[in-house]
Specification:
single chain, 2 strands, 326 residues, UCP035918_rubreryth/DUF125, elongated, disordered N terminus, 12 helices, Membrane protein, Ferritin-like
Length: 326
């Protein structure tokens, strides 16, 4: 920190009891809002899970009401404006848009972490309170937050019976495959295989590692940009159900670029044959990674995936090497 400039954040130990109550109130407001955003995001595809988050938001509303009553009883109607971002070292919530984009299981995991953090806050706040009633309330809320994971389990048992939970999990897995795995796999295959010919043709034609590296970078980055925009523009996801075109384009573009860079970056090594040997090893690792992903996520039989990917990659590599050596 620059001398003379403060961060504008206060230490938790410096807060008054009124400010601790105000902070607890704003925390409960934020958490209820987050749960309702989760519920709204899930309502169409996962209505049972949306109901769970709605019920959890109602619980946070009740906690907020009890805290406001305690504040009015001790300090009056005017609640100081203090939020978690005003307190140094205080836990921060992950952006809702980020968690929403990571899927159903990530939302469930985030909710469990939110409850754990809230329990810890209330225990620390109770330890600092000198008022018996306030201390009891904060202790009760700590216990309630500790029991929220049990509550969440009870709500899931109520709204997410065996069939509903299994169906939502299958739907979430299917959406993950359609939005991330399929475009990413297509990109990885394109980046790994299609760049083999130009990179190794350049390598064997010039035997110059710098030139090969530049060609590899150009081919990889150019292919990544092209694949990303093509995937995003090809389908808006509305009718196909494949999800956000931005997510799919990002997955495809990034994996295409990485697939090409894998066997381009070894040419940072100045010795040609050392770089080429390493690049060839990387190619085989990439091809087997593609086989594993196809078998793991796409249920492609291992033998067929191996034949298609490894044979195809070997043919493209051979074409590049022969052209470069001619």
């Amino acid at each position: 920190m620059i001398p003379g400039i403060t961060s504008g954040r206060r230490r938790f130990s410096d807060l008054s009891e009124q400010e601790v109550l105000a902070l607890a109130i704003s925390n409960e407001e934020d958490d209820a809002r987050i749960y309702r955003q989760y519920a709204e995001r899930l309502r169409e595809e996962y209505p049972a899970s949306a109901k769970v988050f709605e019920e959890m938001a109602v619980e946070e509303d009740e906690h907020r009401r009890r805290l406001i009553e305690a504040h009015k009883h001790r300090f009056g109607d005017v609640i100081p404006l203090i939020r978690r971002e005003h307190v140094s070292g205080f836990y921060a919530r992950n952006p809702v848009w980020l968690i929403e984009n990571l899927g159903l299981e990530r939302m469930r995991a985030e909710a469990r972490e939110m409850e754990r953090q809230a329990e810890q806050f209330y225990r620390k706040a109770a330890d600092r309170s000198s008022d018996a009633e306030t201390r009891k309330l904060l202790g009760d809320l700590a216990a309630a937050e500790a029991g929220h994971n049990v509550l969440a389990g009870d709500l899931e048992a109520e709204y997410l019976g065996g069939d509903e939970r299994s169906e939502e999990d299958r739907s979430a897995h299917r959406q993950f495959i359609l939005t991330w795995v399929q475009p990413g796999l297509a990109g990885l295959m394109d980046g790994s295989v299609s760049t083999l010919a130009p990179i190794f043709a350049t390598a064997f034609a010039t035997q110059d590692t710098r030139t090969t590296l530049l060609v590899g970078l150009a081919a990889s980055i150019g292919a990544g940009i092209s694949m990303g925009f093509t995937e995003a523009a090809s389908d808006d996801g509305e009718l196909s159900g494949r999800g956000s075109p931005v997510k799919r384009g990002f997955a495809s573009g990034m994996m295409t670029t990485l697939g090409g860079l894998g066997h381009a970056l070894p040419y940072l090594i100045t010795d040609f044959w050392t770089a080429t040997t390493l690049a060839i090893i990387v190619v085989f690792v990439e091809l087997w990674a593609i086989v594993w992903i196809q078998n793991r996520y796409m249920q492609t039989p291992f033998g067929r995936a191996t034949f298609q990917v490894v044979l195809g990659g070997a043919l493209v590599f051979a074409a590049g090497a022969l052209i470069g050596s001619g």
